[in-house]
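seq/struct pair 1
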Amino acid sequence: IVSSSAKDPSRYTVNNSNSEDVTKDSGAQTPRLKREVGLVSATALLIGAVIGSGIFVTPSTVFRNSGSIGVVLVVWSVCGVLTLIGGLCYAELGTLLPASGGEYAYLIAGGKWLGKFGDIVPFFHAWFFLLISDPMSAAFQGLTFSSYILSIVYRSCPPPYTVNVLVALAFTSLATLLNCLSVKTSARVQDVLSSIKCLVLLSIIITGVVSAFRENHLLDTPFFTDDTKAANVVFAFYGAIFSYSGWNLITYIAEEIKNPARNIPWALIFGIFTITLIYIGTNVAYFVVLDASTIASTDAIAVSFAAATWGPLAATVIPICVAISCFGSLCAGYFGSARVMLAAGRQGHLPLVFSFITSKTSLPLTSILLRGFLAVGYTFVGSVEALIVGGVFLLSLTDVFVVLTLFILRFTMEDAPRPYRVPIVLAVLRLLVSVALIVLPFLKPVEYLQYVVIMAILTLGGVYYVLFTRFELVVPGSRQTSYFVQKLLMCVPSVNELELMLKEKL
């Protein structure tokens, strides 16, 4: 058992002057995460994280902003290509540094050349990830799941707020429990849920193909029209990009993927390519079955599609399918985000207790439970749409720093072996797109409340960083808390694999 009486990460990792000797001496007894996720499970996790409720509801929004079917298909295709380019950038970083944490780990590596202040950017990335983007995403997935399930019972009116929240809490807790069992169990759950998602969407596509030989509304509507406006197309891109979000989860669990040099790039390529084909095929099926006015006027396009093709049972089938899709994304989020918290705990940016893994199953149990606790808290907040806009801003800002880190590591780790190297042109394109996603919202009147909240959390993070990271202050009772958690959950600190990799490659 170790104490949390200091903030130096070397107190609980092998990141010190004798790390190589410690590693050799400890051998198999050194606590490490286990590489138990193969290519199929990694791809299923990616698909499970990406395909949530978006493809069942956002096509209508994309169509209204695009103005024509042709522009819609271009938007979904371009977003798929841009996502794949982002995936290739992450494939280089993920195979270079196959450690837990994804962007956080890469920012740590990129900041090494700045010396003792190089951890500022990764700290604030972890801070905002922990307090805003991740728990908010989990809460919304739980609430979306709840609203679709309850729509089967409350068909003519919205469900009571209390009932909606209680159901969301129940299934958020279930997702937490499933991820607390073992890595293999979590991966198998994702295999099943991702298969169900793909089967549902393939059913929609096949139904569209069959319907095309009967009544094809795609032929009744002009492919391109003069109604398309550049300003609106930008918002169409935002809607489509939202439906592709979550693909970077693979890099969060890189430390648990078998043969990461091969499986990380292929999981990203297979997963994103499959999702892009499914999304385009699903949109074409919608346009074949439904006329343009119906698509533009409905917010539940999948329900309208099923009602027009599958009959009255659609009122029950589609909500269940969307709920399963949301639950799959919720579970996949737990699998990935807990590893970011684990990485931050190892680096001393979070309390020591979050660097613990279970002694038997090698799970970051404390981080999983923290994610569940924060998600439950956000479930009670209610409507936080304004904060979501701020969340998109933060995600795009992270992408900018990650691509810049890729360029930095090309120099600081010039001689390190790279199983995959993304073409520099694609990396520059990804950087420009990320900058555009940050700037474009400010070209029109915006609601600044979300940015005020971001600044408040930024200030709070700055205080925490100075007090507990720089001055290494210790909260009274932290040592006793660390002892208690270790005994209760049978956890131990884990090896800081990232620091070992950096010591070898820098």
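seq/struct pair 2
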Amino acid sequence: MVVLSMHELSEFALLCFTSLFAMINPFGVAPVFQPMTTNMTHQQSRQVALKASLTAFVILVIFALVGKFIFDFFAVSVNSLRIVGGVIFFLLGYELLQAKLSRMKTDQVDDLESYSNDIAITPLAIPILCGPGAIANVIIFMHDGETLLHKLVLVGAIAAVIAINYLGLVGASRLLRFLGDSGNKVMMRIMGLIVMVIAVEFFFSGLTPIVQEMLHPKAV
């Protein structure tokens, strides 16, 4: 039987929270989120933020519980996920760089609702919030958690970071609206460049280990 001290548990909780916070980066998502919801009312953008946050929470918890099994079953590596995430990030960054996202045709209610549902799932929930780093983190922490209490602490850390993410999206979107149309376009292009740089890092951080393994295969 594993005996836990409050100190050990608090250290594990802090490690889970800080690692996930750094990977998800709630405040870094806001400048990407706001241009996508420019043509929406505050209530509509708030619903998108809520749906994206809840979706991200559910996905992270699912991966924490069965992620290792899924990866092993399909023989999928986290590095492959990094490559795919990098490609999606790059395409998103290119659209931001061209300032296209705020010009989506959302005149009809049905189109706006469909667009809201689409961006809440992809790219907001996946891969921006649930990126390869966050998914790998929850899988590793769940594996390292020796007791049920450890695993509950991990779920609590995920919930806390996602809650902060939601509040950050709602609050930051209000602030960014004061920039106006010109300010939004400038912000979109700056963030597009940053997102594309992040995408390249994601892509090569996944590709490099795969290439190295191909060039220097481990002896069986």
